[in-house]
Amino acid sequence: MVAPALPFLLFLSLISNSASSPLQSHDEGFISAVVSEKGLVFVKDLLVDQAVKSLTPLRLPDIDKSVKIPLIGSVHVSISNITLYRINVSSSTIRLGDAGIAIVASGANASLSMQWRYSYSTWVLVPIELFDEGSAFVQVEGMEVDLTIRMENQGGALALNATQCSCNMEDMTIKLDGGASWFYQGFVIAFDDHIRSAVETAITKKITEGIRKLGSLLRALPKEIDFGGIAALNVTFVDDPVIGNSSIGFDIDGLFVPSNSEIVSSYLYGESHDLVYSVHCRDPSKMLGISVDEAVFNSASMVLFEEGLFHWIVDKVPDQSLLNTASWKYIIPQLYRRYPNDEMQLNVSLASHPSIKVTSKNIVAIVFSDVIIEVLDGDEAIPVACISVDFSVSGVAGISKDNKIVSKAVLKDFSLTLKWSKIGNFHMFLVQGVMRIFLHTVVMPCLNSHLSKGFPVPVIRGLAIENAQILTSSSTIVLCFDVAFANSGNFTDVSS
């Protein structure tokens, strides 16, 4: 039975279409990604939404203070259980610049609740301590939070730092439940600035901590993705992110290496990759564009070849009579004479790794294989001849309704060369018809069976891909798509 390694490799490569509208990133990455303005707005809205959820409810430190009240004297006041329980952001913006990524949430309002208590001493013949307690509610209007984030490459990982974070409030209204009338004005005068400062400080600290945690999560991301303990994809970042006027670009090394080997950029190519990459999307409003260079597929091909995975024993075919020497009686007469009516099998292996070439029209895979004809004599397989079969396939691909990459390959051409024979020489043009049947009825159906099942596009859990397109340009394959919340639009699934 044909192993899945070659179909998987060819499936990765058989994607084609056209492209326009460039968004650029740079340097040595073989996989490039660009987040467009629309994508940045989505990320901004997501960050703002997650920030609001992390801030509510938020417990603030208690406040104690002595207040001078006319005719009363010194009054000790304490505020406890100060809780920010609601924030509503009316608008937010994201700006890109030399300083980094600036996110501003403006026109926000917030609500707080708290408990208050006051006490003071007075004389009525003897000292008497008087006290009262109750609740208070604070309404904040016109709050603005300004955050600037900087991203940089640190040893192949993406580092995220908050270089500036501030919170400012325009108006704040305090409402007391309970308490004497004289106490209200004194409370507002004494605690207005304290409450403002506590809220602004707590929000700034919480957001900064959130960015720090997000940065730690990004730095902890694996630098390689393992595929079955055989190959690993090098996903280290190359150079710093490229921040444009309305987009951010990332370059990833993107080459496959043998599993458990040291991750080194351009491991299989021995020379620097100096091409300037562009992510081309026909529709520039797509949230995300990912460009994959043909070198990625060729590196996978080389690793699989070096690991010895391109080898198959073919003993079952649709027309089983082809694997009996009687069917070869007039094609290779000496084979039939020496082994009359014996069963056969084909021992197929690749002479070198398949070569993948991406063009603006289609994608071609060239395969160099050796097919050893083996005659079965009891439990023994007797090799009688070896034929070099070099063939090429090409294909186009698209996106299915369930956002899987699907494709179909077609055989372009093939050539045969007799490599060696133990039954004497024979003409390849006589074998060509049988080999064409083998390629069309065994190899191509097996390959297309895998391609038709589709390959799901990787996406963060809790999100779904929408409006995906596959494009090609010279040497690169590009996937462009939008993302949206899956199911009910709740992103909490990400942490589950």
Automatic annotation (TrEMBL):
SUPFAM superfamilies: Bactericidal permeability-increasing protein, BPI (SSF55394). Residues 35-261 form the Lipid-binding serum glycoprotein N-terminal domain. One of its GO terms (molecular function) is lipid binding. Residues 1-20 form the signal peptide. The keyword Amino-acid biosynthesis does not apply. One of its GO terms (cellular component) is extracellular space. Gene3D superfamilies: Bactericidal permeability-increasing protein, domain 1 (3.15.10.10), Bactericidal permeability-increasing protein, domain 2 (3.15.20.10). This is BPI/LBP family protein. It comes from Apostasia shenzhenica.
